[in-house]
Amino acid sequence: MGVGALHCPSCGAAVESAEARNCPYCGAALARVQCGKCFAAMFEGSKYCPHCGALGAQRRLMDVDRLACPRCKTAEHAPLMEPAELGGIHLDECAQCGGVWIDQGTFERIMNSAEAQSHALNMLGVMRGATEPKVRYLRCPLCNEMMVRRNYAGRSGVIVDFCINHGLWFDVGELRSVVEFIRSGGLDDAARAAAEQAVSDAERRKSTEFWFGKDGDENRFSLVGPTPLRLLEAALWAMKK
Fold first, then answer.
1. Lowest mean pLDDT among 106-115, 148-157, 184-193
2. How far apart are CA 59 and CA 52, in angstroms?
3. Are strands 41-43 and 6-7 parallel, antiparallel or unpaired?
4. Is the backbone of residue 153 left (phi > 0), alpha (psi -120 to 50) or beta?
5. Average pLDDT over residues 39-51
6. Taking the alpha carbons of 99, 105, 111, 117 in that order, is the dihedral positive or negative?
7. Strands 167-170 and 100-103, how do they pair?
8. Concatenated DSSP letters for 36-55?
């Protein structure tokens, strides 16, 4: 097999052009993709890139609509992101700013699967020493609605932009930081902290209701302090102990 020669991933027959949609020998459907290393054309399912020899599992998709980068998009210029896929993990990465867009389903798989986390890390480009971008709200690349900014998991320190209907945007290095946060047990720590906070809030509400009464209680005295009735109840309770 010559370097750069295209072959059907099903039967191995030679294929003259990357534009072919079916194998001339076995008739198998051929989907054209792009090598994730050298960006040359190859067929989906190929074990190795025929041009550079890189594993064919990591690839850049050529037959899907490309999205404009929400970070770099301006009224005059809208650079398109490069779609890529590895192990069922699909993302769009901007070659200009290094930011990454992923849909909600993909991000859920990354949160719940160690294998998906590894695929995501393998796909991300090397950080290019980019500085922290200027803080501004971005628009979703699909619906153009303004996205919401939140500290992921409330404690990761990574401020993520997300569209509730379509997906999440990570500036350069942020997705890697989130994946590493998940792999280090950050989500479990966040869940425990949230549970402890819920218990603390419930106890505080219970104490407040005891001293000041529930909403609608005519004896409630919320501005200055507990009513005489509350003080009497507290004294009787203390005497019984």
1. 184-193
2. 13
3. unpaired
4. left
5. 79
6. negative
7. antiparallel
8. TTT--EEETT-SB-TTT--B
Q: Where are the domains of the chain?
A: 1-63, 82-184, 187-240
Tell how strand 41-43 and strand 59-61 pair up: unpaired
Q: Kindly give, in sequence order, each residue whose CB lies less than 8 Å from that of residue 218, ignoring residues fewer than 6 positions away.
A: none
What confidence category does residue 28 fall into, taking pLDDT thresholds of 50, 70 and 90? confident
Q: In degrees, to the nearest 5, what angle opens at C-alpha 68 toward C-alphas 66 and 69?
A: 125
Q: How far is CA 34 from CA 60, 83, 87, 93, in A?
A: 5, 10, 15, 14
Q: What is the DSSP letter of 64?
A: S
CB neighbours (10 Å) of residue 209?
13
Characterize the bridge pairing of strands 82-86 and 59-61.
Answer: antiparallel
Q: Which two structure tokens, joined as six digits, stand for 119?
A: 């695929």
- Closest by CA to 102, choosing from 41, 115, 113, 88, is 88
